[in-house]
Write a structure and sequence with these properties.
By secondary structure, the protein is an alpha+beta fold. It has a single domain, classed as B-lactam Antibiotic, Isopenicillin N Synthase, Chain (Jelly Rolls, Sandwich). The protein has seven helices and 15 strands. The strands form three sheets. Strands 1, 2, 3, 4, 5, 7, 10, 12 and 13 form a nine-stranded mixed sheet that branches. Strands 6-11-8-9 form a four-stranded antiparallel sheet, with no helix packed on it. Helix 2 packs across helix 3. It starts with 6 loop residues before the first strand and ends with a helix.
Length: about 280
Amino acid sequence: MINALPTLDYRSVDASQAVAQSLQQSGFAVLRHSPIDPALVAQTYQDWQAFFEGDDKVQYTFDPKIQAGYFPFQTEQAKGHSTPDLKEFFHIYEGHPLPKGIGNATWELFNQLQHLAIELLEWVEVQAPPSIRLRFTEPLGAMIANSKETLFRLLHYPPLSDEIPPGSVRAAAHEDINLITLLPAATSMGLELLDAEGQWQSVNCDRGDIVVNVGDMLQLASQGFYRSTTHRVVNPDGPARYQSRLSMPLFLHPRPEVILAEGKTARQYLQERLREIGLV
């Protein structure tokens, strides 16, 4: 399987144009040499690997009202799918406490990713056609500034058992809900996107890279100029099936009152989607 995406250099003079073009054409971009500290990424993965391997995680089971906390294995299923994903995860929102034993690297990484996201959204806006920019009810970066809805999701895909229920995968095909997603490279491969020709393409990236993708809210706000592309995490073959996989996307959500399009606020749109995937 070929890699659908070139790796873009954050430091290049044409980075803004290149990132926006990649997001417009494929819904995804892979960014190298970003300001995100690789040591923070490594430490955060180490902390959460220990959490998911421990027995205390059930003490932090999520509160359905606020969606923060630990979501047990096979809690979530993708929109339109009847089989739950083969994953467990923890939701972090600004202002909510972390589990005992999780160090400050998680919050530092959260903040670094959020600052980068604001810059990337400014790139996305600047590179959009004037007719699209005029439709934004406020600057894209301002939509997420001081938002308490932005979600840091720590995902653990456990080793696969020898008997997997038919149709069960680590993450079934889906689109993200939010404006954009920033994803430090996962601990192993498996992420794929569906290209414009209907073919699945591997999203290859190295440690230290950041994957960026468009969510449904940006697609809505940009009238489809930026694509919210279907993606999935496939089950590995060979020895890799007996190893854990961790990933940690930061989903950048606008403030609830932000108007994405005529008659649709961010709060309304989010609640609709959470009902569709069974989380509320």
